[in-house]
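Input/output pair, single chain:
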Amino acid sequence: MAVRMEIERYDAKAAAPGTKQSMTLIADIGLEQPLELPVLRIDGAAAGPALLVLAGVHGDEYEGVETILRLYRDLRPEQLAGTIILVPQANALSYRGGTRISPEDGVNMARAFPGNPEGTPTERIAWHLHHRFIAHADFMLDLHSGGTHYAVSTLVGYYHNDGTEIGRRSRAAAEAFGIDLLWAHETIAPGRTVSSALALGVPWLYTEAYGGRRIRREDAEAFYAGAFRLMRHLGMLRSNEREQGDEASPAAPRRIYGDGNFDGSETAKADGFFIPELPLGSPVAAGERIGTIYGFDGEELQRVVTSRGGVVVMLPGTPAVRNGEPLFMIAPSEPHIDDGEKRGSAE
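Output:
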């Protein structure tokens, strides 16, 4: 049974070596009912780094939630050197409705960091996550997927800056994670968990997967095994026995670059039914056709063509599209060819 406490009483540094704890942290976020934030924590039998794993920043993304629950079920304190702190439902407001945006205030939590203690409910939750969790981590992993709105290639995003310690550590961790598509971000747009981590000097990764408000087993296993590989990479696994994630990572992962902000995706120019001609992960050349939007009279309303080459990393989560909605994103396969736009993370 979870221990309930006011969030102000939670001390991220108060380790209890050799223990597993389930907690519910209570916080006033300006609504009639207080927030109940579930936190799962395992303090290893030996000293080591603190790994923070977040899921549910968007309430319609479930792969990360499953990953966290499986990690808490399977990990034993005697296996660990250090502490793993697991937050399976970072945004309870959007999770309750299965939505990307918090219904109570219309805020996308992945645009709200580092938050505001006197702001909207979502901004207040972001403030607590920034100050009480991210600020005390030695490494952060934020688990995302396409959710309802997008279908996304399974990938790991990281800070691509080998001139800094954070960049070097993020890149090494991404390569150890074991997913064969890496999204390299040279700069990070504000408002994300990862921009908070960067500002605090905390190295980080985030993941993406197909989504669709259901969990593909291959994505669940990629996240779960990747988390074990990350812990082993960070020196957190003590056992000499063969563990989940021991299998070798891909020798030469593919790397993509540029703008990772889905808010800046190419958009539909008409209401209609979208039929793609290329699967996610496909390489494309400038001028290549991605798909077509049709009307129900059979008319072609929009031939969807890319203006630049790269890799297809996002398509609509459902074929019914509306004018102005995100339709696709192409990530360059070479650095420094993003047309000078602000780069961010795919969250």
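Residues 264-331 form a domain with the OB fold (Dihydrolipoamide Acetyltransferase, E2P) fold (CATH 2.40.50.100). Confidence is low (pLDDT under 50) at residues 337-344.
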